[in-house]
Amino acid sequence: MKLAFSTLGVPGLPLTDVLGLATAHGYHGVELRAHAEEPVHPGLTPGQRADVAAAFKAAGVEVLGLAGDVRVAAPGEDDAVVEEIRTLLDLARDIGAPFVRVLPGGGGESPEEADATAARRLGTAAEYAGDVDVRILLETHDSHPTGADAMRVLGLVGHRQVGALWDVMHTWLGGEQPVESFAALSPHLGYVRVKDIASADDTTPLRLGAGVLPLTDVVEVLSRHSWDGWLCWEYEKHSHPDAEDLTGLLTPGREHLARLLNESA
């Protein structure tokens, strides 16, 4: 498995510094938070996009994916949501990212209605995703925290360009064991988000291995099934500004994941 970290942990940091952290601390890739206040966002010109791709290539680091905030199950008109996904897909194509993350974001309607809304929009966007050779990944999050929840949507979509992003915190908070999450998501799994927290009531990010999330079980089930994808550390400094800085935790975090991988081999 390859290891990455998300720029959610280093909000607003210039791309050259992000790539410097990746190479200095031994990470294979970076997941980019694609928001206007970040260095990589949909407002970049074609030339700027080419520069981003060139910077990753020069550093020998892979672009894992773009983390957008499109909410595919949210109430409202379909066209705006689909267009936002397409905008992210264009950016991903231009910088060489294989994945675009979207969120469920359902609420205020029945689960059946939210599932149908999300599936309809993802199904529409999937055709364009195929054209640009980028996969859309629905994260286990908010209204659809578990693998079983996400699969209700993905089963309706039924398109190879739409898959799943397994966020281990949300599936755990949803009461799902790692073996259950993997069983549900494995046919559609793009990559896995790892993190650690103190408790279900305190989701302030902690260094990997310092909290309660079942990371050992996650790595064990992935290894047992010979899954050979990405583990991406999402340290949500953006949402918790008082949390410890990620920079000093990157090497211990990589070492912790490497140790888990070795123990499960």
Write structural notes for this entry.
The mean pLDDT is 97. It is built from nine helices and ten strands. Helix 3 (78-95) links the parallel strand 3 and strand 4 (99-103). Helix 4 (111-132) crosses helix 5 (147-157). It is globular. The longest helix has 22 residues, at 111-132. The strands form two sheets. An eight-stranded parallel β-barrel has the order 1-2-3-4-5-6-7-10, surrounded by seven helices. A two-stranded antiparallel sheet has the order 8-9. With 265 residues, the chain is an alpha/beta fold.
Topology:
Layout: E1 2-6, H1 15-25, E2 29-33, H2 46-59, E3 62-71, H3 78-95, E4 99-103, H4 111-132, E5 135-139, H5 147-157, E6 162-167, H6 168-173, H7 178-185, E7 189-194, E8 197-199, E9 202-205, H8 215-224, E10 230-233, H9 250-264
Parallel strand pairs: 1-2, 1-10, 2-3, 3-4, 4-5, 5-6, 6-7, 7-10
Antiparallel strand pairs: 8-9
* Helix/strand class: alpha/beta
Provide the gyration radius in Å.
17 Å
Terminal Cα span: 11 Å
Shape: globular
Report mean pLDDT, rounded to a whole number.
97
Count of helix runs: 9
Strand neighbour order, sheet with most strands: 1-2-3-4-5-6-7-10
Number of strands: 10
Question: Uncertain spans, ≥5 residues at pLDDT below 50?
Answer: none
Q: What proportion strand?
A: 15-25%
Fraction of residues in H or I helices: 40-55%
How would you sum up this structure in a few lines?
With 265 residues, this protein is of the alpha/beta class.
Jot down its keywords.
alpha/beta, 43% helix, globular, two-stranded antiparallel sheet
